[in-house]
Amino acid sequence: MRLLQSITTVGGYTLVSRVLGFVRDILIAAVLGAGAGADVFFVAFKLPNLFRRLFAEGAFSMAFVPMFAGRVEVGGIQAAQKFAEAAFAVLFWTLLGFVAVIQIAMPLVMLGFAPGFVGDPAKFDLAVELTRITFPYLLFISLVSLMAGVLNSLGRFAAAAATPILLNLCLIGAIVGLARYTPSAGHALAWGVAGAGVVQFIWLYVACGRQGVWLKLPRPSLSPDVRDLLMRMAPVAVGAGIYQINLVIDTVIASLLPTGSISYLFFADRVNQLPLGVLGVAVGTALLPMMSRQVRAGDLGSALHSQNRAVEFSLLLTLPAAAALMVIAGPVIRVLFERGQFGAVETAATAAALAVYAAGLPAYVLVKALAPGFFGREDTATPVKISVLCLFVNLVLNLILMGPFLHVGIAAATVVSSWLNAGIMAYVLHRRGHLVIDRRLAGRLPGMIAASVGMAVALYFAAALLEPGLSGSVADRAWTLAVLVGGGMAVFGGLALVFGAARPGDLKSLYRGGGTP
Q1: How many CB atoms lie within 10 A of CB 473?
Q2: Closest among 221, 61, 43, 62 to 132, alpha carbons compared
Q3: pTM of the model
Q4: Cα gap 173→187, rounded to integer Å
């Protein structure tokens, strides 16, 4: 499947998921606000997701997808299925034991994950209770990631890309239908997370079966293939673990800051995740199996071309998105979340974090576009070394900035370390000859920057002129924000053509696999 076609498939479903995610977050903000109850639920939601990214989306996925794709290329689907089943068994039993241990030790885990809650026994006990409900999600969603890797390697992206939609539907259903029967809305949301894991697992298991891959659960054994998988996972696990330590550091420090800090960062990150999730996840998901096959086949020219187009497409969309979010962070947060328990104070604090997070948006997506350049060539060690450096930068900056800037300092530390990560990855790939910027990308990048700056200036003055609408009723705010966003897109599109950042036929040619390096 062509790169952009794959990206648009994944991105389209991810966009639907993000829209539903905003509906979910609007409901959460309305019923929980940005206070103690919200802080507790977000901790309970983050902990299984932290380990999910380590076990599934991190080490396991990055090592599994190239190996599975290679077996499909060389030995056919039956050989690949046997490998997948062996990996499935090891992952299942390992995570089952891990979940059981963490459930027992949850109070100790919470002491380390949210030490700021210790001073409030009721808050601490609620965090332990809700996290025990959500944590089994880790088992199911990790198996979902394995099955998603199977489908992506077969060029079937839709079913896997649709799984986050199911999570959001389950959480929306929990708020609307279950909250009245539980002790609190936080309890309903926690059960919604647990139920979503089961629903997503069934969805992808059936999707794999429809492709002729009905995965069985054999007795776990360390076969040569599994040992090879574990050896490749080890350095990636360290790298993924380092990244997750960054997230843990952010949460630990935020728990020590005034109540609401965790929630401010969560809601700001959710808005920032819209372009990141739609584009970054789509680029990484589509590019890794494609580059793995191209490198395995010795087609290095195509691999370089795919890398350039992924970087170009990422920057073309993230530069204007970052500029827009930095300029109109306040109106965006006001329209999305300011209702019910979420007031003007919460809006101002969250918007400040969003404006800072947005500055790192291109870097976040570039990391997703550059990582396959390493993993597609089965180099899992180099990204670990880069991650170690970025971890220490993030930690030091957190400690320096948390005092004077509170939660905004945490966001700033994340941005700096993310740009450092992307910059070093690009430099290393370039030194190795695996990232050679072609004339098309080099010629269009200045135009992308100029068009983004021009759009940001236009949005700044437009937001000032439209302030009465942005301060009016809920309907007035929504319509005014829609005008701002639509106008900003139109301005960027026009400026992109004027400055040569894009051409009208680019998307069509890329979708068909055209374009020249």
Answers
A1: 9
A2: 43
A3: 0.65
A4: 13
**Residue matched to tokens 């298991």:** 205
The parts of the chain modelled with pLDDT lower than 70 are 1-15, 34-35, 53-62, 70, 73-75, 157, 233-248, 275-303, 340, 375-378, 380, 504-517
CA distance 195 to 212: 26
- CB of 44 closer than 8 Å to CB of 123: no
Task: Map residue 37 onto helix, strand or coil.
Answer: helix
Residue where the block lists tokens 């695996």: 434
List the domain boundaries for the chain.
Answer: 3-437, 441-512
Sequence-distant (≥ 6) Cβ neighbours of residue 398 within 8 angstroms: 249, 250, 253, 409, 410, 413
Residue 299 contacts by C-beta under 8 Å, 6 or more apart in sequence? none
Phi-psi region of 212 (alpha: psi -120 to 50; beta: other; left: phi over 0): left
Hey, what amino acid is at 57?
E
Q: What are phi and psi of 342, to 5 degrees?
A: -105, 105
Work out the burial of residue 268: count CB atoms within 10 Å of its CB; fewer than 13 is exposed, 13-18 middle, 19 or more buried. buried
7: nearest Cα among 197, 292, 283: 283
Please tell me the distance from the alpha carbon of residue 153 to that of residue 213, in angstroms, as a whole number.
Answer: 12
Give CA angle at 21 (247, 484), nearest 5°. Answer: 100
The secondary element (H helix, E strand) that includes residue 299 is: none
Please list, in sequence order, all residues whose beta carbon lies within 8 angstroms of the beta carbon of residue 215, skipping any fewer than 6 positions away: 81, 84, 85, 88, 147, 150, 205, 208
